[in-house]
Amino acid sequence: MAQASSDTAVRTGSATRFIIYTVLIVFCLYYLLPLYVMVVNSLKPLDEIRGGGMLSLPEVWTLAPWGSAWSTAQIGVEATGLKPYFLNSIIMVVPAVAISTLLGALNGYVLTKWRFRGDTIVFGLMLFGCFIPFQMVLIPMARMLGLMGLAGTVPGLIFVHLVYGIGFSTLYFRNYYAQFPTELVRAAMIDGAGFFRIFQRIMLPSSGPIAVVCIIWQFTNIWNDFLFGASFSDFSSQPMTVALNNLVQSSTGVKEYNVHFAGAIMAALPTLLVYVVAGRFFVRGLMAGSVKG
Amino acid sequence: MGFLDIKQATKSYGAVQVLQETDISVEEGEFLVLVGPSGCGKSTLLNMIAGLEDVSSGEIAIRGQRMNEVRPAERNIAMVFQSYALYPNMNVAQNIAFGLEMHGVPKPERDKKVQEVAELLQITQLLKRKPGQLSGGQRQRVAMGRALVRDPDVFLFDEPLSNLDAKLRVDMRTEIKKLHQKLGTTIVYVTHDQIEALTLSTRIAVMFGGYVQQLGTPKEIYDNPANMFVAGFMGSPSMNLFPATLADAGGTAQAEFTLKDGGTGVLPIADPAIVKHAGRKVILGIRPEAITDPDGADRNSKAIHQLEAQVEVTEPAGSDTFVVTEFGGKEITGRFRADVAVQPGTSHTFAVNMEKAVLFDPETEARIR
């Protein structure tokens, strides 16, 4: 990317460049301000926050708010901290992302390489599914989960996210596989590979970039989801986002802002981590297929 | 019954019939080339043999066994694709071994066969590389290796040379021919390049518009084209085709046509049977190499006829000079020896080998015999 942009960039004088960079840095700082506020205030004792000066660095550095948010803070009626809910989120998000990505890949493979009568209609309907507002399905979904005996459980939440996630993951993989040469599939057929062998040996190993895009997208959406978590979970199966809300709402007289900040950062960390680790593949994957070579 | 039998096979997509009823019987060890312009149905027919496309009606049989319902993997065929279709995530050795692996051949035997094929194609040093690290010619070899290693009943080639540059294409063509002579395998080969068809094949099927226009040996196709399409498609530069009228000249036929200067050109027809068509308008077909300077004419021919005509353009091509004139209002190309002095705009003697002339009906475009 860097080489490409330096080749085509317009050459500018150093004065212009200075102005551009100054403006950009100011914007950067402005955008990073909320994160700064969260971090510094999560590391101060509560009375420093109440004494005003949200922007100042802590006089006494302390990790106590983090400890409290993680294991002792009052969440709803119980003083468990965010820990169990963080685990709930993990055991919800990992299978939901893995299964929806895999099924999306399989759908994309069928929709591009094993085309059948009406495949475009099927794909159209799946796309349509991506854009149905969440609120619309709440009541039917609650009924379905009840019938399946999954109401208020983590598997129930996984199911809901799976249903919503497949539309998007199918879209990603279908468009990626549409660029994938069909002759390879035909060659593998003649070589004697069957439907799943071709998928596993030929398609999947070439799907790295789009899989990264899909995983980041699904992970961010499912991890950050609040509505489904709030609607379909029990106390025992609440995800992190709902627990964070409960942490902030359930005050015992004093609002422990430093603990709230620490909790909010904890809730945001996994998605941040995913972006940092896989971010550069993200752009590459989004661009894949758009330009040849 | 042959080794590979195509019996009354057709292919339709909905109401559109892309392949008309086709009958071809290929003997074991034969090199059949399907040649024709884009959209003539040649690739469709190949894919039907491979099992990648269904047969709409009729039958395809290999070794006398009906193949219509057999899956591609179980037909014991191998195919080389136009894009080579090498698996990008596997190295060369894995690419070649993939088909064997899918057919459950144990690893030591696979390795041995890969090694043999790699030696045959001289790609041993490439076995550990990924397809992305290979040149076009090397990819081509790997694609052939992947087909060879399976030791199939029939090899199918789908325009395998069309992605190579001109020089490499000629080299690979020779190599494929050598390989066929060495291994004696049965090959069905699709191309739109008539030179490839003529050089490689033992038999050619010229296809156009979903029909097999003519099926025959390269020599039959070249010397005795069944219709004007085959005559014009095969050969480079292509056959001269121009209108003429047949007249009876005392027991034998002669073709009469206008020359550039307004005079009438006359060429006697060698075949005495043609006289029965006297009075008909025909299209006369003569290949460029049958129109030469008088000294360059074929000494074995008993029907060389000379005539004076205006030279319009000369195109020196190194070994020969192509001389363009006009018969019957059509541009005619003759092939002169390079050292004959010919000036454009002047008149020159053309020697026409009438043994090689063929006649077509202007309406039906079919051969008149």
Description of the molecule:
The complex is a heterodimer of chains A (293) and B (369). Chain A is an all-alpha fold and 293 residues long. Chain A has helices spanning 2-8, 14-42, 46-50, 64-72, 83-113, 119-130, 134-148, 154-178, 182-191, 195-203, 208-224, 227-232, 240-249, 257-287. Chain A is 74% helix and 0% strand. Chain B is α+β, with helices and mostly antiparallel strands. The two termini of chain B are 30 Å apart. Helices cover 23% and strands 35% of the residues of chain B. In chain B, helix 2 crosses helix 3 and helix 2 runs parallel beside helix 4 (136-148). In chain B, the strands form five sheets. In chain B, strands 6-7-8-3-9-10 form a six-stranded mixed β-sheet, with helices on both faces. In chain B, strands 13-12-11-14-21-22 form a six-stranded antiparallel β-sheet. Chain B has helices spanning 42-50, 92-102, 107-121, 136-148, 166-183, 194-200, 218-223, 228-233; strands at 4-13, 16-26, 31-35, 57-62, 65-66, 77-80, 154-158, 186-191, 203-208, 211-216, 240-248, 253-258, 264-268, 281-286, 291-292, 304-310, 313-316, 320-327, 330-337, 347-353, 358-360, 367-368. Chain B contains eight helices and 22 strands. Chain A binds chain B through residues 181, 183-184, 186-194, 197, 201-202, 205-206, and chain B through 50-52, 71-74, 77-79, 81-83, 85, 87-89, 98-99, 102-103, 146, 150.
Secondary structure topology:
The complex is a heterodimer of chains A (293) and B (369).
Chain A: H1 2-8, H2 14-42, H3 46-50, H4 64-72, H5 83-113, H6 119-130, H7 134-148, H8 154-178, H9 182-191, H10 195-203, H11 208-224, H12 227-232, H13 240-249, H14 257-287
Helix pairs in contact in A: 2-14, 4-14, 5-8, 5-11, 6-8, 8-11, 9-10, 11-14, 13-14
Chain B: E1 4-13, E2 16-26, E3 31-35, H1 42-50, E4 57-62, E5 65-66, E6 77-80, H2 92-102, H3 107-121, H4 136-148, E7 154-158, H5 166-183, E8 186-191, H6 194-200, E9 203-208, E10 211-216, H7 218-223, H8 228-233, E11 240-248, E12 253-258, E13 264-268, E14 281-286, E15 291-292, E16 304-310, E17 313-316, E18 320-327, E19 330-337, E20 347-353, E21 358-360, E22 367-368
Parallel strand pairs in B: 3-8, 3-9, 6-7, 7-8
Antiparallel strand pairs in B: 1-2, 1-4, 4-5, 9-10, 11-12, 11-14, 12-13, 14-21, 15-20, 16-20, 17-18, 18-19, 21-22
Helix pairs in contact in B: 2-3, 2-4, 3-4
